[in-house]
Structures are given as structure tokens and as C-alpha cells.
Amino acid sequence: MKEKETMTKFTDLGLDKPILKAIQAEGYDTPTPIQAKAIPHLIAGKDVLGIAQTGTGKTAAFALPILQKLAQINGKPMKFRPRALVLAPTRELAAQIEASVRTYGRDLPIRQTAVFGGASLRNQVRQLERGIDVLIATPGRLVDLMNQGFVKLDQVEVFVLDEADRMLDMGFIHDVKKIAAQLPTVRQTALFSATMPKTVSRLVDDMMHEPVQVEVAPRATTVERIEQKVHFVTKSDKRALLSVILEDEAIERVLVFTRTKHGADRVTRHLEQRGIIATALHGNKTQSAREKALASFRSGRARVLVATDIAARGIDVDGVTHVINFDLPNEPESYVHRIGRTARAGAEGIAISFCDGEERAYLRDIEKTIRQSIDVDEEHPYHAQAAANDTGETRPNRGRQHRGGKGGGNGGGGNGGGNHRNGDRPTSQPGENKKRHFRPQNGKPSGKPSGKPSGRFGGKQGGKQGGKRAA
Questions:
Q1: Which fold, 226-414?
Q2: N or C: which end of the chain has fewer CB within 10 A?
Q3: pLDDT higher at 154 or 282
Q4: Which numeric CATH code is attached to 2-215?
Q5: Strands 407-408 and 412-414
Q6: Is 69 exposed, middle or buried (CB count within 10 Å of its CB: 0-12, 13-18, 19+)?
Q7: pTM above 0.85?
Q8: Chain-centre distance of CA 148, in angstroms?
Q9: Amino acid 119: pLDDT
Q10: C-alpha to C-alpha distances, 316 to 119, 192, 253, 319, 359, nearest whole angstrom
């Protein structure tokens, strides 16, 4: 079943007064399309399949109905037995969802917590021991806790799988199936995904009962408000080209994506050596270092955040004027998720992609997936005509970016950094049996840039802000 009807105000959606009060306190009035379509069905107790790009407000689309359902039932959470479970592929996304649940449930007797790798397992167990209504988790850490007896899923009433395509792409399919097998047969299930590959479709068939499908954008397409450009450049000239582009002060807050963790570190060092304040975010960073990097970028202290694809799904930062693909992703869907970091909350944005000769096939796949050609910008000092003339028929010998591994080349090459460490990797990976055992003890974004991108690489007015959305 596919739903098309939308509503225009949060007050139209059947939400209770405490939740509406929290929404209004955050300055929200009008739901996004995915919220308007999904919330009524979830409140009615139906399973929902939501297809929407990043930055469309999916978190509130499932968080608000969960809060309402649990508050109305008014049950008391049991030790180690959550009443609602939300699975997210990355730590950043899990933390973001937990913050949203806390914000919208401020006037409700609801407890929530997030569990993920890179954070204290002991503290997470203590929270679970107190009793949790809403548990937000990455699959690896949740399976770890389940194996040690610190999480029981037999009381879960609502199960949400967020960013399902990315989760499966990162290799979590076996963990997801193991988790789902422990859930009660009678439950409500919601699944949200930006794309619908066959693996996600099979998951829907296995886990959901007559779901209502709500879709707010064509699958695997890019946001219309994003101006897209490609710069053909040799691999050895990429860092120099990046420096030239960042000389444009209109590029106020920029996300730079590399294929590897080591590549992200090299690009960050290169920018810092040229007086550009930049910070790196990838899977080799500790949780505290990742939080520090995000805080620096959100506040505006760091102008540039250099990241691997773990950031493409878990970062919600308003005011990103530009996304630069230093390395093209070797999976075209990742391109959609990357550039979706800009043009959020009604703003416009610009996506610039560097393409060397070995990446020509990736560009061809991306254009085929998004069903449009990306404009070529030749007016830069490092234009590589040979790369532009390449047909893309010869595919580069590069591994899949989500499998982890060593980096190589000038910020590219090798296998990309994933999120598979400290409890966030699929539990079927080597090393997962090394678990820690112990007994539990009893006892808004700030610094938004203003102004409008202009000048050589500015293009559209990337700083134009639209209406506020519920994240």
C-alpha cells in the first residue's frame, strides 16, 4: 500500500499535547513530507516503510509516534528489557536519535539511552539495568550486550530500523537478522531507507506485516536544491585543487569526503598547513575525538570537516554550504547520501566532485543512478583533459569502501574506513569473540554561517535558509 495524502500542521497529526508542546518549544510548526505521511500511520499502529533521502526529518517521523504510544500505555520499563528499539548504522546517528527522543519526550515519563561502540560498556549496562523505555543502538554493540545477557528484547513493542540500506551496506545483515529473531512476533515495525535495493526489499518481506509505504522523493535521486559540478583532475593535483577552491570565502562550512581514513587525515593535515581550520572524522577516531570534531564543525570553529562515509548518514548539521567529494564513492548510492549533507532545512547547496582518470567509471555509475549528467567545470587551474576524455569503460581495481582496510594514494585508493570497531562492526567479523564481562553494580546547532556563496566556486546561494524542520 502506498500513501500519498499529506497533512500540513503538527496539530493535524493526532499528537498528544505534551509532544506538541515540545515540538513548539523547538520552533517547529509544519511537518516535513515524510513526517506528515508517516506519523498518522504509526500512531494508528501500522507497520510503515518510509523511503526518503537524508535531511528530510525521518527521526521525528518515528520518534514522535514511539513517545506517544509508550506514554499512553504508561508501562514501567523492566530491567534490561526496553519497550522500543531503534537500530542505527553509526554512532553519530544513534546519538542524534537519542537526543531527539530526549528533546521531544521532555514532558513525558520516558527513559531513553543509546548504546554503541567506542563508549563505556559499563555505563551503558548501568543505564539498561535501571530500565529503559526507548533503546537506540548500533547492531554490533547491541548483539554484544545481548550475548552477555544485558539486553532482552521480549518486551519490545515498537521496532525501528533506520537507514536500512546503509546498515546492510556496512555488513550488518546477520546482526539485524539475529536481533529481529529475538523480537516478539506481535509488534509494530517501521523501516526507513533512502534507497530500496533488493536486500532491503527482502528484509521488508521478512520483518514487516502489510506495511504502508510512504515515499517523499524518487529513489536514489539527488536533492533538486543542490547544484552539482564535477572537476576532472589528476590524483596528484587533488589537494592543490582543494586549496584553490577553499580560497573562496563564500565556501563557509564545507564537508569534504575521502574514500579512506588515512586519506582523510592527509587532507586535514594539508589544509591545516595552509592555514585552513579543518578537522577529521572517521572510524579510527575515539568516540570523544569524534564528538569533539563534530562540535568544532557545528560551532563554526572548524570551517572544514574531512570525513569518510560514516559521516554521510549520521551527521545533522545545518548550514553546510558545500560538499566536496575529494574521492568519488565507488557505490553510487553513497554519492546521494554524501551530498544530502547540504541543502538541508530548506537551504540550497553546492556539491563539487573531483574525478581522476581511475574514477571515471564511478562517475558514469553515479550519473546513471541519479538519472542525470553532472555539469563539468573546466575553469580551474588543474583541469585534466585526459580524465575528461576517458569513457569510464575500464573499472579501477579498488575494493568496496565499507569493508575497512588500509588507505593508499593521494587520499584515495584502498578500502574505505567503515564503522566496524569497538562494538560497531558486524559481529561475524574476526575478533568479535573478544568480549568484556563484568557484573553491573546495583546500586541546536549553533554558529550557522550567514551570507550567500558567490564568487568562483560559490554558484547558487548556498546560505539561503528555509523553514525550520523537526530533525
A1: Rossmann fold (3.40.50)
A2: N
A3: 154
A4: 3.40.50.300
A5: antiparallel
A6: middle
A7: no
A8: 28
A9: 87
A10: 20, 16, 13, 10, 28
pLDDT tens by residue, 380-417:
999 999 999 987 666 555 444 443 333 333 344 333 33
How far is C-alpha 253 from the chain's CA centre? 18
Q: Is 1 exposed, middle or buried (0-12, 13-18, 19+ CB in 10 A)?
A: exposed
Q: Which amino acid is at 380?
A: H
> Residue 397: its pLDDT value, please?
54
The one-letter amino acid at 171: G
Residues 383, 233 contacting (CB under 8 angstroms):
yes
| pLDDT tens-digit readout, 319-348 | 899 999 999 998 888 888 888 888 765 567
Give CA separation, 429 vs 92, 109, 147, 424, in Å: 21, 39, 15, 11
Contact 83, 136 (CB under 8 A): no
Q: What are 265's three cell numbers? A: 587525515
Query: Per-residue pLDDT for 463 more than 50?
Result: no
Domain boundaries along the sequence of the chain: 2-215, 226-414
CA dist 449 and 257 (Å) reads 20
Kindly tell me if the per-residue pLDDT of 114 is higher than 90: yes
Residue at 266: amino acid letter: R
Domain pair 2-215 / 226-414, same fold: yes
pLDDT of residue 60: 95
Task: Determine the distance from the C-alpha atom of residue 164 to the mean position of all C-alpha atoms in its chain, rounded to a whole number.
Answer: 10
Q: State how far the Cα of 92 lies from the Cα of 313, in Å rounded to an integer.
A: 8
